[in-house]
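Sample entry (464 residues):
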Amino acid sequence: HYTANQESKDNDLASVMSLLTHLLAVLFGMGSWVSINGLWVELPLIVPEIPEGWYLPSYLSVIIQMANVGPLFVTLMHRFRPGALNEAAVIYTIIGLGTVSTFLLGFFWKDTVVVAGAPRSVALLVLTFFLAAVDCTSSVTFLPFMMHLKPQYLTTYYIGEGVSGLLPALVALVQGVGVVRCINSTQSLNHTLSTYNSSLTLDLQAQYQPANFSAEVFFFFLSAMMLVCLAAFLLLNYHPSVASEHSNGRYTNRTKHRAPKNKNWAEQKPMMDPYRAPNQKARSSFGSGSYSWPQVVYIFVILAWVNALSNVVLPSVQSYSCLPYGNNIYHLSATLAAVANPLACFIAMFLPIRSLLLMGGLTVGGSGLGAYIMFMAALSPCPLLVNDVSGGVVIVLAWLFFILTLSYVKVIIGIILRDEGHSALVWCGAVVQLGSLLGAVTMFPLVSVYSLFSSGDPCNTRCP
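Predicted structure, serialized as C-alpha cells:
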C-alpha cells in the first residue's frame, strides 16, 4: 500500500531532482557569456603585453559585433527553414568551440604576426572572434533550449547568465587585475648652469601592480568553465533524474520521440507568420495570442533598448564614469554591477510581475540612472562631487540600481516570451543581439573615433 511515509520520500526525491535541475540550469547559463566577460575583465593585464595597446577594446567591440553572423544565421534558418536546424548540435558545437578557443588563448594570446609591416596580435583577435561567435550564438540557442524544461528553470538560467559576468569579475579581483599604485618620480623642469637655480617638482606616475597569477591561468579557468557548461548541458538532456523536469520529452530527440498528443509542443513554424490561422480568442498571431501586435512591438522595443544600454552603451563608459572617484570606487561599482544581475534574476524567481506598465516604469527609471552615469562620464575627469565621498557613493549606487532594474526587466520579458513558445525565445535572443549591435554602432565612434570622453590621469588629475 502507498503509505504517507512513501509519499514523503517521493516528495523529498522530487525536491532533490528539482534542486539538481536548478543547479544544472545555473551552470548551463553560466557558459553563455563567461568567455567574453572574462576577456574584458582581463584587459588591464593583456593590454601592456600586446602591440595594439588600449586600442584593443575598440577592436574587441567591432569583432564582437561581426560575430553576430552566428545568431543571424540561426535566426534566418528558424524563420525560413523551421525545424531544419538541429539546435542541440549547434549548442554542442558552440560550447566545444568556446572550450577550445579559451584553452588556445592561454598559449597564444601574446603571439604576434607581422601584418602590413607592423606586429599584430592575430591569434588573440581570431580566437576572440570565435569566442564572440560562441557567446552571441548562445543568445538564440541556449534560451530556446530552456523552453523544454519547466517554466521555473528559465529564471534560474538567467541567474546563471548573470553569474557569467560575476564569476570572472570576482576571479579577476582575487587575481589583482587593474590595481594601480601612484609612485613619486622627481623631474627637473628648469635646469640651468647654476645648480642652486634648479627647480624640482614631484610628479606622480601610475604603476600597475603585478597580478597574483598570470593571464594564462585565467584563460585556462575560463576553458574549465566552458567544460562545466558542457557537462551541465549533457546532464540536462540525459540524466534520468532530470527527465521528470522536462516539459515534454527530451530536447535532443524531440522530433522523434514526442508523444502524438503533444505534436505541437515545440513550434515548427516561424513565430511571426501572418498566414497563421488565428484562434478565435487570440489577440494576435504572435505565439499563443495573449498579446496584441502593439504590445508585442512594445515588448521587443524595450528588450532591444535595455540590452543596448546594459550590454554596450553604459559599460563602454564605465571607466570614465567611475575612475575619477578613485580606483576602489571603480572596482566596487564593477563588482556590485556584476552582483546586481543574478540578484535581479533571484528576485524575479519570487516576484515575477508581468505587468507591461511596471516594465515600462522600470525601464524609464533605469534609463534615468543610465543618463546620470552617462552625464558623469561626459564630465570626466572632473564629474560632480569628484572630491566628495558622497560622489563615489552615488555613482556606485547608480550602477547597482541601473543594472538591477534593467536586468529584472530582461528576465520578466524572457518569462513572458517563454509562455509564447519556442520561436518567441529564438526571436528574444535575436533582439537581444540586435539591441547590443545598435548600441555598439552608436558608441564606437563616440568613444574611439571622436574621443568625446576623457579619462584623465589616475594619479595627477586635479579638479577644482
